[in-house]
Amino acid sequence: MQFLEAIETCVVKKYCDFSGRASRSEFWWFTLGTFIVSYVWQFIMSLLIGSAVTFNTDGTFHFEAIQLLGYIPSLALMLPSIAVTVRRLHDVGKSGWWYLLIFVCCIGGLYILFLNIQDSEGDNEYGPRPQK
Prior knowledge:
This protein is mainly alpha-helical. It has helices spanning about 5-15, 25-50, 70-75, 80-90, 105-115; strands at about 55, 60-65. About 50% of the residues lie in helices and about 5% in strands. The chain has a two-stranded antiparallel ribbon. The model has no long low-confidence stretch (mean pLDDT about 85).
């Protein structure tokens, strides 16, 4: 799967689809696209608005509500990111509930990363092996 095809699949075709499987290329191309969009948006917002937090001389800080606009892409891409990760877990033969391990300190997140690196399993209970 190519970069634009992975983005289209995850954002347009399977925005909130937690069933089925996702190949490694679909997952990693979408992850790269998510990082690019988020960081470019944050960069543009920081140029337009400025720093998110300003520290005062008395030790307090000031946060402007307009800075929340910087998180729009992250919020918009949160559901497809979770969905593609769950489909990727299905691809290696694990239940999507394993995704909850990311909330168990860094060990859980590292294990999810390890599973996402693994090669696809043959046909399993979640469907046939996805094309690369």
